[in-house]
Write a structure and sequence with these properties.
The protein has helices at residues 11-23, 42-47, 66-76, 87-117, 125-146, 159-168, 180-190, 193-197; strands spanning 2-6, 27-31, 55-58, 61-64. By secondary structure, it is an alpha+beta fold. It folds into 2 domains: 2-76, Glutaredoxin; 87-197, Glutathione S-transferase Yfyf (Class Pi), Chain A, domain 2, CATH 1.20.1050.
Length: 202
């Protein structure tokens, strides 16, 4: 059985728990007590030297970084499929997963972490405004990619949609104009049972 070291408010962890739920895969959850520094303990760093979550353990096999874990689970458990069979569509899915990290999650962290966890006097408002502007630009591009489709790649729910879902949960905290296509997409994704089951408490 898989053992997943994660934290319930981590967007990266939520990607993996969503995929596990979508595929109906049993696993042992291990909550990493990050507020008290457990992710920097020698024991955890022996598993993941970067001190981040999630980390997947299967026997003596250890894997970290959420997109790597998602692709591994898809390879090991291809049904129900969360990736296209067509090579070009699979490449587009991988592209969107990468762009999600580079153009959304990376910038969103500069807004969401302060707003969720820090007092206002510690906010870097200039950095947060810059991040919000970059997120707005990216969402416009994603809206064009979506067009009239329900999902991002091949009009089927995939790992690309999973990568976006945790951050879309908190769009209301980001000071940017959100295209209607993105709002509708977010509503659709967040209504899925896997998203409801993994929704963070805060």
């Amino acid at each position: 059985m898989y053992k997943l070291h994660f934290h319930p408010v981590s967007n990266y962890s939520r990607r993996v728990t969503m995929a596990l739920a979508e595929k109906g895969i049993d696993y042992e959850p291990v909550t990493v007590d990050m507020p008290n520094g457990a992710h920097k303990s020698p024991e955890y760093l022996a598993l993941n030297p970067y001190g981040r979550v999630p980390t997947l353990v299967e026997g003596d096999f250890v894997l970290y970084e959420s997109t790597a874990i998602l692709n591994y689970l898809e390879t090991r458990h291809p049904e129900p499929a969360l990736a296209p069979a067509d090579a070009r569509e699979r490449a587009r899915m991988d592209m969107h997963m990468k762009l999600c990290d580079l153009q959304l999650t990376n910038w969103a962290g500069r807004v969401l972490f302060p707003k969720r966890f820090l007092p206002e006097e510690r906010w870097d408002r200039d950095a947060m405004q810059k991040a919000s502007e970059e997120i707005g630009k990216h969402l416009e591009i994603v809206a064009r990619e979506l067009g009239n489709n329900d999902y991002l790649v091949g009009n089927r729910f995939s790992l690309a949609d999973i990568c976006y879902t945790p951050t879309l949960e908190f769009l209301y905290l980001i000071d940017t104009e959100v295209p209607e296509a993105i709002n509708a997409w977010a509503e659709r994704l967040l209504a899925r049972p896997s998203a409801q089951q993994t929704k963070p408490a805060m």
